[in-house]
Structure formats: structure tokens, C-alpha cells
Design a protein that fits this description.
Belongs to the ArsC family. By secondary structure, this protein is an alpha+beta fold. 37% of the residues lie in helices and 11% in strands. Strands 2-1-3-4 form a 4-stranded mixed β-sheet, covered by helices on one side. Strand 1 (19-23), helix 1 (28-39) and strand 2 (44-48) form a beta-alpha-beta unit.
Length: 149
């Protein structure tokens, strides 16, 4: 994928392919993900959820990309979840949004997404899918050459 004049990845039509990462300042997983993106020179837009609430549109977009809905994005280990008296399945989207807006720690972090992919949490192997395919192919060729295959 080519870069535009601002250094962002673009598709053949020149559309910017920007990765968004939702983070929290206190999260070690978020720091690892940000360091990994920087190391691999992948442009991203960071949204620190402890400083700025997620919007209803952003939440809707994330949920649309999940396979299991709220089960995928909600942290069941956080204190706010343990104090819930109602099932998340019983909440409307607006009620869920208000709950997350009030308790941003309910969201698992980091959340990485672009137009086609979603990743919840940091996993060193899974995050590689955000590397452009052409670069992944080159890395695979280099690895095979080094291993003598």
C-alpha cells in the first residue's frame, strides 16, 4: 500500500487506511501495543478513553465488527462489571453507551481497529495483521531466506 504525502497508508484509490487504537493511560497492554505500532511504523490515531469518552458512533462501529458483541469488548474483571445488577444483554445500545461513558474501565483495552479488522487486547502475533500485506510478504520471504527454505 502506498503512503500519501502525510505518510499515512492509502489504498489504490488514495483513501487513507488509518488504524485507531483506544487506550487507557494505566494499561501495560496499551503501552505494549503503542510501542509495537511505533516500532513497525504503522500510523495510528490514539484515543485515550480515560481522557476522552468514546462516542456512541464509535461504540456502534466497534460492536458491528465483533463476533460476540459485548462479550468481546467488556472486561469482566473490572470492579464496575462486578457491581452491575443487570445483565448487559438486557441493556439497549444507548443504555450500554451511558454505562461505558460513566465507567470507561468496562471496556477491554487496547481496542485496535481499521476499516476491516478489529483486535481486542494486545497479542504480539495477532497485531501483525495490521501490517500491510505487501510488507508481511516481504518479511516472510526474508525469514525463509534466513532459514534456508
Amino acid at each position: 500500500m502506498p503512503l500519501n504525502k502525510w505518510g499515512c497508508l492509502t489504498d489504490r484509490k488514495g483513501v487513507i487506511s488509518m488504524l485507531t487504537i483506544y487506550t487507557a493511560s494505566s494499561s501495560a497492554s496499551c503501552r505494549k501495543a503503542l510501542a509495537w505500532l511505533d516500532e513497525h511504523k504503522i500510523p495510528y490515531r490514539e484515543r485515550n478513553l480515560t481522557q476522552e469518552s468514546i462516542t456512541l458512533e464509535e461504540l456502534r462501529g466497534i460492536l458491528m465488527m465483533t463476533e460476540t458483541g459485548t462479550n468481546e469488548i467488556i472486561s469482566k474483571r473490572c470492579e464496575a462489571y462486578k457491581l452491575l445488577t443487570t445483565s448487559l444483554d438486557d441493556l439497549s445500545l444507548n443504555e450500554l453507551y451511558e454505562l461505558i461513558k460513566t465507567h470507561p474501565t468496562l471496556l477491554r483495552r487496547p481496542i485496535l481497529l481499521d476499516e476491516k479488522r478489529l483486535q481486542i487486547g494486545f497479542n504480539d502475533d495477532d497485531i501483525r495483521r495490521f501490517i500491510p500485506r505487501a510488507i508481511r510478504r516481504l518479511e516472510m520471504i526474508e525469514a525463509r531466506m534466513k532459514s534456508g527454505l
